[in-house]
Amino acid sequence: MNLALWIAAGLLAAVALTGGISKAFVPKEKLAAADGGGWTADVGEGFVKSLGVLELLAAAGLILPAVLGIAPVLVPVTAVCWVLLMIGAMVTHGRRGEFKFVALNLIYLALAVFIAWGRFGPEPFTG
To answer: Are the beta carbons of 101 and 93 closer than 8 angstroms?
Structure first.
């Protein structure tokens, strides 16, 4: 179970890192032209950049606290925050009729739920 939770956290951290880098550093106009990025045309650049920074923090929060042994409870807390972020993403993509992205966000949400459940429940980092 511990290995499965680490794999899930690593996958989700990679997703968060990729999304965070693109939102934080790619121009909004380029994001808006990409598949699934049309929503960025409807919001301010500061909002997009803020989401990018949050995703970068999520990438760090899913891995670093456990690896460093500093406040490892932040791993499942980060996973819960990711669930909330994915609910927002699913609503946004659903309103735009982008149901393949709703499904993708649902997969990310499920991974985060698994991590939160596992680390708060049967496989916490502290015994």
So the answer is: yes
Q: Which long-range contacts (CB under 8 A, 24 or more apart) does 9-12 make?
A: 9/62, 9/63, 9/66, 9/75, 9/79, 9/115, 10/62, 10/63, 11/111, 12/58, 12/62, 12/79, 12/82, 12/108, 12/111, 12/112, 12/115
Q: Are 111 and 11 in contact (CB under 8 A)?
A: yes
| Tally of domains in the chain | 1
Q: Which domain holds residue 73?
A: 2-120
* Predicted confidence (pLDDT) per residue in 28-54, tens digit: 999 999 999 999 999 999 999 999 999
127 falls within a domain: no
Verdict on whether the full-model pTM lies above 0.90: yes
